[in-house]
Amino acid sequence: MDIKQLQYFCTIVQEGQITRAAKKLHMAQPPLSHQLKQLEEELDVKLFDRIGRKMELTKSGSVLYDRALQILSELDEAKNEVKETNEGVKGKLSIGASKSCFAFLPDRLRAFREKYPLVTFQLREGDTYYIGELLKNREIELAVTRLPLEMDDIEMIRFPTEPYVLVIPESWQQHIHNKTSIKMIDIKNFPLLLLHRINGKGQFEIVTSECRRHGFEPKVILECPDASMLLSLVTAGVGATIVPKSTLQSYYADKAIVIELEDATIQSESAIIWLKNRYLSKSASRMIETFQTNV
Fold first, then answer.
1. Closest residue by Cα to residue 61 from 42, 43, 48, 44
2. Which residues in 191-227 are b (16+ Cβ under 10 Å) and which e?
3. Which pTM was predicted?
4. Do 251 and 112 touch, CB atoms closer than 8 A?
5. Which of 60, 115, 122, 145 has a CA positioned 20 to 30 A from the CA of residue 211?
6. Separation CA 183–CA 188 (nearest Å)
7. Core vs surface per residue 229-257: b (16+ CB within 10 A) or e
8. Which residues of the chain have pLDDT under 70?
């Protein structure tokens, strides 16, 4: 087994067919089929089930695919590390960001660009669970996201904690009698739109637990992992939401009202995270440094 065979194998998995894989690799189909056959013979396992023209991984194939991705990723990291030894800070930096804490990023990106103009960026967004998956798969090097995060193999710099606030449609002003703050029990009957991760526990559980602590079951009418969609629905009058205060710095909501929660004890936590004990590019290391100082 060699690196080229692993690259061929991964391409077949990703394309789902030998024909498409050969086309992507700019090679003829017979040599590619031969390489796959050699790999199966060497390992003495069947890597694919052929279902018509489509090829699906067997259990053995899935194990090899996961390991092959790790090996190829580590090879790329080694190449980059060697190349960067005699080079300055340049190249493309892949960063993940959850929309609810995106406000921590723009000023640092601007300052970073002023200092390292040869660096370009690839920005990926998603909820905390999805961001964690991107990081584990090494599709990004760094991420700015909400906590908690159910991952053991990460390092982080935590940001200051912040309060949650209630955001209501402008048309609801009569319900709060022009108040700038409100008690938790007073939102008992409000239809709520809450952030909810694709997988794992996060903002949804934090907010609903706080409601129960104040003696009521929240009236949740909608759950969504995307903060911008929630705030758009609030401005449209669908319902109210409870989000970390900094979430509002990234969105201009001219038809919404922000209300402080007088007796809420919950605080939101967020951080910049990266994989522990993994190679970081120079640009990633320098970006982390910007979070250790004031921009």
1. 48
2. ebbbbbbeeeebbbebbbebbeebeeebebeeebbeb
3. 0.69
4. no
5. 145
6. 10
7. ebbbbbbeeebbbbbbebbbebbebeebb
8. 80-88, 252-253, 294-295
